[in-house]
Structure formats: C-alpha cells, structure tokens
C-alpha cells in the first residue's frame, strides 16, 4: 500500500475468539497461539500506522465456531460431533461482518468484531 501511495486503505485480519482467551477444549494450543499472534499483529500494525500518520484502518474479525473445512483435519467423527452438538456460524456470517466494516465512514475504525452464534458458551 505504501509503495502505491495508498494512505487510506483498510486491512482486515480474520482472527478467532481463540485469539483472546484459552478455553479448556481440545488440545489445539498451536492454533490458539497462532490466533493470539494475529491479535498482537493487528494491534501492533494499528499503532505503527498511527505513528506514520496513515489513515489506513485495521480491523480484526474474531468469529466463534464457524462451519468450515478446517475441521476436516480432526477427522469425520470429531467434525460431526463438533458441528452436530454446538451452534455454529456460516462463512456468509463472517463475510457480512467484513462488508459491514468496509462500509463504515472514513472517520470510523472498527477495531474488533467478535461474532458468535447464538447459544455458544465460550
């Protein structure tokens, strides 16, 4: 962006609620750690942009459980158990949050959107 002279863009990081807490669930601490890194990266970049006098916005979107292909890595039985017994979001729900963020006026910066399905406990 800087190389192209863009000083008023919008950077959106897709994070996770797991980047803000450490739940007592499946032992997937590498995933949690990567999402914590996104949280810190987002805030660090936001501060750097402010120091540079940039008008570029930066937003982190942190969804709860979303029914996506990432669960395929857990195997079909665990995947079925997770999605059958827990409320979950769809990819369109996250896309709608991103579109909302992009539609804000130039003077409004959405720092964080946490989006969870109704009934999610964590």
Automatic annotation (TrEMBL):
<dbReference type="Pfam" id="PF00106">
    <property type="entry name" value="adh_short"/>
</dbReference>
<dbReference type="InterPro" id="IPR036291">
    <property type="entry name" value="NAD(P)-bd_dom_sf"/>
</dbReference>
<dbReference type="InterPro" id="IPR002347">
    <property type="entry name" value="SDR_fam"/>
</dbReference>
<keyword id="KW-0560">Oxidoreductase</keyword>
<protein>
    <recommendedName>
        <fullName>Dehydrogenase</fullName>
    </recommendedName>
</protein>
<comment type="similarity">
    <text>Belongs to the short-chain dehydrogenases/reductases (SDR) family.</text>
</comment>
């Amino acid at each position: 962006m800087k190389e192209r002279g863009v000083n008023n863009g919008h950077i959106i990081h897709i994070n996770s609620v797991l980047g803000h807490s450490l739940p007592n669930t499946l032992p997937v601490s590498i995933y949690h750690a990567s999402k914590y890194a996104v949280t810190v990266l987002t805030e660090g970049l936001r501060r750097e942009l402010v120091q540079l006098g940039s008008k570029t916005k930066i937003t982190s979107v942190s969804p709860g459980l979303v029914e996506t292909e990432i669960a395929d890595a857990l195997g079909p039985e665990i995947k079925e158990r997770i999605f059958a017994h827990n409320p979950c979001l769809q990819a369109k729900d996250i896309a709608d949050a991103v579109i909302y963020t992009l539609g804000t006026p130039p003077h409004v910066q959405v720092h964080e959107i946490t989006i969870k399905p109704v009934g999610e406990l964590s």
